[in-house]
Amino acid sequence: MTHVVVGIIIKNTKPESYLLVSSIKDFGKYTGYYYPVGGHVDEGEGELGALKRETKEELNVNIIKAKKIVDTDSDIKNQKTSWYLCEIDSYNFNIDSRELKDVGFFTKEEMGKMNIWPATKKIFKKYIFNKN
To answer: Name one GO molecular function term (predicted).
Structure first.
């Protein structure tokens, strides 16, 4: 079983906006869909270390705070996903164009009109949008 870790990054604007990326990688029917930044946990690597590494590699920003939300089964067979709520040191990105097609901050309203990865939709609905 593979293990993926993702970080939900919230920009405290009015209304709040959420950092989502779209990969160049072919994900079959989910190709081009948006999801939080993250990636695979390498052998011998901890979740937080993997999340920090992936965020640095893909966006060239540093995670300064992270709190685990939940572990879930993935939309991908034989994969576990660990979800974190994160703060980063800068909103000035330098994306890795070899991995990412697009990155941006999107409001809840904008996300409702986008192709969002199904697991991401579920987590946002349960843990982010209904946090009160």
So the answer is: 8-oxo-7,8-dihydroguanosine triphosphate pyrophosphatase activity
| Burial label, 14 (beta-carbon count in 10 A; 0-12, 13-18, 19+) | exposed
CATH superfamily of 2-128: Nucleoside Triphosphate Pyrophosphohydrolase (3.90.79.10)
Say how many CA atoms lie within 13 Å of 120 toward its Cβ. Answer: 25
Q: Where are the alpha helices (DSSP H) in the chain?
A: 47-59, 108-111, 118-123
User: Where do the structural domains in the chain lie, given as residue ranges?
Assistant: 2-128
Count Cβ atoms below 10 Å from residue 109 Cβ, excluding itself. Answer: 9
In the chain, % of residues over pLDDT 70 = 98
Average pLDDT over residues 85-95: 93
What does the DSSP 8-state code read for residue 127? I
Q: CB–CB of 22/101 below 8 Å? A: yes
Asked if the peptide bond before residue 118 counts as cis, ω within 30 degrees of 0, the response is no
pTM assigned to the model: 0.92
